[in-house]
Amino acid sequence: xxxxxxxxxxxxxxxxxxxxxxxxxxxxxxxxxxxxxxxxxxxxxxxxxxxxxxxxxxxxxxxxxxxxxxxxxxxxxxxxxxxxxxxxxxxxxxxxxxxxxxxx
Length: 104
Known about the structure:
This protein is an alpha+beta fold. Helices cover 17% and strands 34% of the residues. The strands form 2 sheets. A 4-stranded mixed β-sheet has the order 1-5-4-3. A two-stranded antiparallel sheet has the order 2-6. The two termini are 25 Å apart.
C-alpha cells in the first residue's frame, strides 16, 4: 500500500523510506510475541526533488515526480524540524526489499 492508507502523506501518495532505522521503528508494531519487523531496502532515487518546508504541499511534491522531471522527494525534516530525512518514491520499481529485519 502507498502512503495515506495507514499513516500520513506529507510528501504525496508514495512509498516512504528513511535513512535511520529509528524513523522506520516509529511505524512498526509488535506481533503477538513482541517482535517488530522492518524492511531494509535498496532504493533508486534518481533526480531528487528537495523539500525542507515545515508544511510541504503533498500534491506539489507528488507532481514534481509524477508529472515533472524528478524521480523522488527528499523531505529534509532534519533541516526544518531537527528529526529525520525521509525519502518518497512513486514507482514501486524504484524499491527493492533487500532484507527483512525482526527485532525486539
